[in-house]
Amino acid sequence: MTHLPDGRYVDDAPYDPQASIQQLERRDLDAPNWILIWRKFKTHKLGLISGIFLLLCYLMLPFAGFLSPYTPNERQSDHLYAPPQSVQWFHEGEFVGPFIYPITAEADLETFQWKFVPDTDTPLPIRFFCEAGEYNLAGLIPSDTHLFCAPEGATLFLWGSDRLGRDVFSRIMYGAQLSLTVGLIGISVSFFLGIILGSMAGYFGGKLDWFINRIIEILRSLPELPLWLALSAAVPSNWGPVSVFFIISVILGILDWPGLARAVRAKFLSLREEEYVRAAEMMGASSGRVIRKHLLPNFMSHLIASATLSIPAMILGETALSFLGLGLRAPAVSWGVMLNDAQNLASIEIYPWTAIPMLPIIVIVLAFNFLGDGLRDSLDPYQQ
């Protein structure tokens, strides 16, 4: 070591690149677990993009009313099955800003259908931060302010209107509140039952293990769709939309827990023989503490990956039940309820925009699958 005049010390040893690499590797191994997970997750581009997209979607849910130009059940009786209106920026070569051309309905005597003709001579600017239909911000705060609204005396159907003249775009925004939330509630119920029953069966074994396994086998042997239909049909028809929503979420969670419970049981059967578990038991730790502090943390990576892969199954389950008319019902708005109105193939052929609610379902399910793949790969940071 050389002492400099300013008081610092400089190492005189020659530079060893191999030693520097070893120091960096040791620093990586000594880093906290969440840092290692984040470093590896960042390299999974699809998972990272999907995670950011899903985060934005869930942050948007409380503001669905603000982001929608109409309320979900607001009808325009003169514009049934109106086609999507495009937002224009230039009129006759001049920049006007975001505007639309008003449309009027005219009867087509050849096809006996209504056709909508735009008035290309009258550009109407879109209003921003305007007052329109009332809604509850985050479900609690009454408000009537919208980010953008239709011009006075015109309509603004970005994705067309349905058979009752309701804006498809606004209904998809409102429907996301139920369709995306049902997965979170369902997975909470599923994880609560799966972790508790699976850990009890795997840790204690014996008759309790035998009994829980028989329940799992019975539930897994029942056909899934008929069981959904039977449980959903048992919901009283006079219940409100909120009650039906919660009971559907609970039903989906109850039917999903056996798979998770079996995975937890199998993992606990192998972990309970480990030396650190035996040491904790010999030191007097209770069974609950051993499960919480020693067994579950070693299984957490699988649980997180399972959650992200199970949520889309919950969303598809609610969509299927609502599509068949046995899940959420009007006036509740979800993507499944919207697709229930698009069962007629002839209607979709004539008015293809009524099938647009399929697109957010596909995108959300793919995003959850990509996120689950990224988490599954990154939750084991030491795996190359």
TrEMBL record:
Domain of life: Bacteria
InterPro entries: MetI-like, MetI-like_sf, OppC_N
Its membrane topology: Multi-pass membrane protein
GO cellular component, one term: plasma membrane
SUPFAM superfamilies per the UniProt record, alphabetical: MetI-like
Main localization category: membrane
Matches recorded under Pfam families: BPD_transp_1, OppC_N
UniProt key word Transmembrane: yes
Keyword terms: Membrane, Transmembrane, Transmembrane helix, Transport
CDD domains registered for this protein in UniProt: TM_PBP2
Bilayer-crossing regions: 46-67, 180-205, 225-255, 303-330, 350-371
Record localization: Cell membrane
UniProt domain ABC transmembrane type-1: residue ranges: 176-372
Single Gene Ontology BP annotation: transmembrane transport
Family label: Belongs to the binding-protein-dependent transport system permease family.
PANTHER family, A to Z: OLIGOPEPTIDE ABC TRANSPORTER, PERMEASE PROTEIN, OPPC IN A BINDING PROTEIN-DEPENDENT TRANSPORT SYSTEM
The protein's name in its UniProt record: ABC transporter permease
Organism: Phaeobacter gallaeciensis
